[in-house]
Each structure stands twice: as C-alpha cells, then as structure tokens.
Amino acid sequence: MTANRQLCIGLSLSATWMKGDGWRRPDSDIEKMGSIDYYIDLAKLAEKAKLDFLFKADYLYLSPQLLGDSANFGSPDPTMFFAAIARETQRIGLVTTVSTTFNPPYVVARQLQSLHWLSNGRAGWNIVTSIEGADNFGDSPMPSPQERYAKAMEFTDVVRKLWDSFPNEAIVIDRESGIFSDKDKVSSIHHSGDFFSVQGPLTLPAHRSGSIPLFQAGASDTGRNFASSIADAIFAAMPDLESGVELRNDLRSRAQEHGRNPNAIKVLPGLYFFLAETREEAHELHKSAHAHLSMERRHASLMSVLGLDLSSFALDDCVTTDMLPDPNQSVRSRTHAELLRRYITNHEPTVEEVLIRPEVVGSAHWVSVGTVEDVLNDIIERHEAGVIDGFIALPGGSEESMKLFFEKLLPQLVERGLFRTEYEGSTLRAHLGI
C-alpha cells in the first residue's frame, strides 16, 4: 500500500477511558488525572508510536453533566496544556481548541502563534463556535448558529491576516548592516468588518515552518460549508458508514464550489473504541461506560439533542419521520440533530434503538467494540470505502483498552502499510502532507 494511503491518527487527551464507571476500576489511575505529568506521559507514549497529533477539546461552561458521578476536572485551557507538553515532546502535533464566539481574534492569533513557536511548528487550531457558555461572557443570549458561523468566518480571516502581517522573512539578523528586522515587510491589516475592527500587525513573526493548520469540528450544513472553505481537516461526527459516505461526498462537492481541491480536507472522525482480549470483555466495558445513563438521562439527552420527547412510548415502538419536531427549533447541537434526523428518516428505528445511538449517549462518535481484530476490520472497512483519512483515537472502558491500541492495534496498521514506522517530518504541516 502506498504512503499516501496511510492513515492520519491523533489521540484525544480527554480521559474518555474514565467515562461511566471506568474511573471506579482499581486500575483506573484516576488519582493521577489532576497532574500534568499524567498527560505528558500520554503525550510521550503517543509520540513514541509516531502518531500525527494530540488533541484536546474545550468547554467554556460548567455543565451539570461534568459533576457528580462523571470523572473529570472540568476543562483546563487546552492551549496552556499544550504549552507544557510542547516542552516535553519534539515531533508530535498539538491541536488546541479555541472558540471564535467569545474570544478576541488578536489574542487568539497571538496565543496560537506563540504555541507554534514554543513547539517549533507543531501547533494546530481546532476552530469551534461553541454551543453554550454565553452566560459567562455577558448578558446576551447565545447567538444563532448562522450568526456564530458568520462571526467564525470573519474571526478566522482576521487571525490569518494577523499571522501574515508579520512574516518570518521580516527577521533579517544582519550583523554587518545592523538590521535585525525589515520593517517594510511588517504591515497593519486595517480590518473593519461586521464583528471586528482590528488594526494589527501581530506582535510576533510567523514561524519558519509555515502557517498553522486549521481543523473544524462541526458537521452541520453551516459547519460543512465553513469547513469546506478553510479547513485542512474536519473532526467529523460519523456514527456509521452511511453517514461517512454522505459526509465525504458532500465535502468534496462543497470544496470544489469554493475553488479548492476536492480532496484537500482530511476527514478525521473520532473513533471511540472499546478493546479487550475477548468480545465479551469488550462489550462489558462498553456496557459499563454507559451504565450510569439511566432511561431518564437518555430521554433528557434526546430532548436536548433533537427536541423529541419519547418518554411516553414503549421501547419497542417505532420512531417515524412524522414524529420528528421542527428542524428549525433550537437544539444543543445542530450537527447531532441532523445526524439523528437522518438516521430516523432512513431506518425508522425503535425507541430503544434511538436511545442507544451515539448522538444520544455520547458525542456522535464512531463506536467500535471488540477485539483488536474487530476494531482493525472496522478501520479498514471505512478506509477502503474512502470515507476517512484517519481518526482521533478515543480509548474507552479502561486504560487496558488504550494499552491494546498502542501495543497491538497500531502495530497491525503498520504491518498492513496503513501507518508509518517513523516520522518523515517534524511539524504538523509535514505530518498532514500540507
């Protein structure tokens, strides 16, 4: 298999293996989660395995779901997180998450460029518009998805202009002439738009490795249009192969409409896997990870995701298209709502089948449960179908699941020519083939 068919693989540093009752296991190492050393060790493990990047999500509000029986320490700032990890690693990419809804673009441009310098060209930006958190930034209600994406488009444009405002070539360091920097190459951006007015230039030059790769996480109609216009990769919500085929074809078409190469955007879904030596053990891990989700919680989640109340129906009742609520109503995540609407329209599932869907019990991730061979076959199936360029590893159930990923699954991918044996470059751009 040729090199350009190799997978791009990242590791999420959110402790997905602690979800549900996983943290209660004697071997969970839950006590270590409060220390940066724990995550640095994981980063080094991922770099030793030659993974392309590390990823960290971010939340600008404290959801009640993050308290009580859920094992987490809230949401530390991922950019600061990666600044610490940058010092302890050399080649693995560092993809941080920053919202365009509540931050000023100048500060974000500076923070990201700083991380790019600290890591010597390994920073990546996961652009999110946030779905909650307005109460923490003033009295205004949460903007509509359309307004958030319009703001995100302008925000991203401002950030990129700021990165270009102080090019690396402006640093001359000519001892003989006494010229350290060419001030004629540094310029203001004079941006004045619907949401922002920014003079510029940025306070530090671009890194010699080139601009910071852009990632985008939304797969709603508006999110896809945004991603197809600017993103180098999309963290796609892809709960099944069918949704993957539809997403890939749609992104290609939209990229062409924006004058881009239809294959310019890498599709990297989250792969939430539960690995064990036997299928029975793996399914037990999966069951345990969702055991805390009572029927009441599942129905509440469904209401939040889709605005659909099925609490009065029997588990074996069918959910039909005519039961779906108005698609324009306000929901927590338009991406998850559209995925679930499509699933119900295409399959008319039972209530029970709806309540176990990834959009309801998780984050609409692709879920794979079984042995190393089972999960490997799932990956190969989607790769050969052409719907993925790689994935973000989300180990589930226990640290043992993550151990099997590194010690057995990755070597199998390498053996089949689907993953690298060594880094060919030292920057995130190089890993992504940009």
Residue runs with pLDDT of under 50 for 5 or more positions? none
Which outline best applies? globular
Report the structural category. alpha/beta
Count of strand segments: 14
Q: Fraction of residues in helices?
A: 25-40%
Distance between the termini: 20 Å
User: What is the CA-based Rg, rounded?
Assistant: 22 Å
Provide an overview of this structure:
The protein contains 14 helices and 14 strands. It has 434 residues and is an alpha/beta fold. A 10-stranded parallel beta sheet has the order 11-10-9-4-3-2-1-14-12-13, sandwiched between helices. Strands 5-6 form a two-stranded antiparallel sheet. Helix 3 links the parallel strand 3 and strand 4. The radius of gyration is 22 Å and the shape is globular. The chain starts with 7 loop residues before the first strand and ends with a helix.
Topology of helices and strands:
Layout: E1 8-12, H1 36-48, E2 53-55, H2 78-86, E3 93-99, H3 105-118, E4 123-128, H4 145-165, E5 171-174, E6 179-181, E7 191-192, E8 197-198, E9 214-216, H5 221-230, E10 233-234, H6 241-257, E11 266-267, E12 270-275, H7 279-289, H8 295-306, H9 334-347, H10 351-355, H11 358-361, E13 366-370, H12 372-384, E14 390-395, H13 399-415, H14 428-432
Helix pairs in contact: 2-3, 3-4, 5-6, 12-13
